[in-house]
Amino acid sequence: MLTAEMLAKVRRIQIRTTKLVNDILAGRYESVFRGQGVEFKEVREYVPGDDVRNIDWNVTARTGSPHVKVLTEERELTIMLVVDASGSQRFGSISQFKLELSAEVCAVLAFSAIQNNDRVGLIVFTDEVELFLPPRKGRKHGLRVIREVLYHEPKSKRTNISKSLGFLSQILKRRSVIFILSDFNDKQYEKTLKVLTRRHDVIACMISDPRELSLPDIGLITIADAETGEEVIIDTGNNQLRKEYELQAKEEFERKKKLLLQCGAEFLDIRTDKPYIDELYRFFRARERKTNR
Questions:
Q1: How far apart are CA 192 and CA 168, in angstroms?
Q2: What phi, psi does 268 have (nearest 5°)?
């Protein structure tokens, strides 16, 4: 059961992210994520300038005058938020855990979708799919998405991205927009991701913390693997060690980014020490320019 403090935290996120949606992303969501096709609206008489390919020959033959089909964009979308809740997500060296950052990003995306009358669904995963909320509309549902991301108690600390993506492929019957929020600390998910990107619009949001990319000079520290519990003591006062750590971290980041792009996903770099809204805005602007070409 949620405590008053938990509910207050959800409310603060709602207020903050709703303001961002209204002030910064207003209008961009709809122009970036358009409908997945067209649907028939009505038939009317042909007027000069109409596309002759839209002539309805049956009605034309019946009435004796040319008529055209009027088509309209099928606007309603399904947005799926796929959130990694493994042990590595409960880490943060700045002001919040990576999982809390994921919850805020989910809130912005969910309220943007709901404001445009789209459906939002949620998957929370570790090495299993631990929670599935079917896509629905409405503010109440959006608030539940935030609550579940923040306060779901995972049964496992490990990660299996492929299993969650395979689950998505089975349940999604129509083309959807999928945001995956994870640090992608896993292997052998490429094949499943490629299958998903062939049918759906997939955006990979890499959630990271600055301490995963570089180490401060603070002497001896114990580092524990959040998923396996394995511990190792390192001397951060060793300048060469810090340089090697930073180089390896950068290479690993670039490897993951390259892999995700090669699999057909788009890529967002979301960090606990930088305003995530800047990255979302950059992404929306880039998508908007590409869509309007």
A1: 10
A2: -125, 135
Residue 288's pLDDT band, with cuts at 50, 70 and 90, is: confident
Q: How many CA atoms lie within 13 A of 34 on its CB side?
A: 10
Whether the per-residue pLDDT at 75 is higher than 60: the answer is no
SS3 label, residue 261: helix
- Distance in Å from the first CA to the final CA of the chain: 49
The residues, any chain, with a CB within 8 Å of residue 206's CB and separated by 6 or more, are 182, 183, 184, 253, 256, 257, 260, 267, 268, 269, 270
Instruction: Return mean pLDDT, the chain.
Output: 86
Strand order through the sheet with 129-136: 129-136, 119-125, 78-84, 177-182, 201-208, 266-271
Residue with token string 């969650």: 164
Domains of the chain, start order: 4-31+76-291 (3.40.50.410), 38-73 (no CATH)
- pLDDT on residue 173: 86
Residue 194 in tokens: 């490629």
pLDDT average, residue stretch 242-257: 94
* Least confident range of 165-174, 200-209, 279-288: 279-288
**What's the pTM value of the predicted model, to 2 decimals?**
0.81
- Judge contact between 161 and 137, C-beta under 8 A: no
Using CA atoms of 215, 218, 224, 225 in order, give the dihedral in degrees to the nearest 10: 0
Q: Side-chain half-sphere of 254: how many Cα atoms within 13 Å?
A: 6
Nearest alpha-carbon partner for 17 in 156, 80, 127, 110: 110
Question: Dihedral, CA atoms, 265, 268, 269, 270, nearest 10 degrees?
Answer: -120
How far is it, in rounded angstroms, from Cα 56 to Cα 207?
A: 51
